[in-house]
Amino acid sequence: MADFAEILRAIGDFGLFQKLLLVGLCSPMIILPMYFYSVLFTHTGSSYHCNTDWILKISPNLSTEEQLNLTLPRDQAGSFKRCEMFTPVDWDIDSIREHEINQTTHCLDGWVYDTSVYTSSIVSDFDLVCDKANFVGMAQAVFMASILVGSFIFGPLAES
Q: Transmembrane ranges (predicted)?
């Protein structure tokens, strides 16, 4: 039986075919990390709050800040809560200002997203906030698990 050095002498040096094969096998390794890092941009969620347009039916002349102050509760730090809103009422605007609304509920009419940085993301397209916020991490885990399973299935098939 011939040793490895004799086989290489018989085949020849690292030629054009071997170079093209190497480039063909390495090109996915250049593109794949870009796809992994794209998750940082597509899964990024901008700031959001409950859609509180119900109060505009009572008083359409409210500014955005007045609307938020009258319809969204604040947390201990003083910022608006993202997943809660005051329960809609049928009072007039003066009664709402005077009595303030104390009962809160989850978001009833969806969310309003800040589009100043990202006009669209997976989070805003599929409303992956509040109760569904863990779906983003689960999608990432399923993606990575499918890569693992695919490497176990297609790795041995590629060697056949």
A: 20-38, 135-158
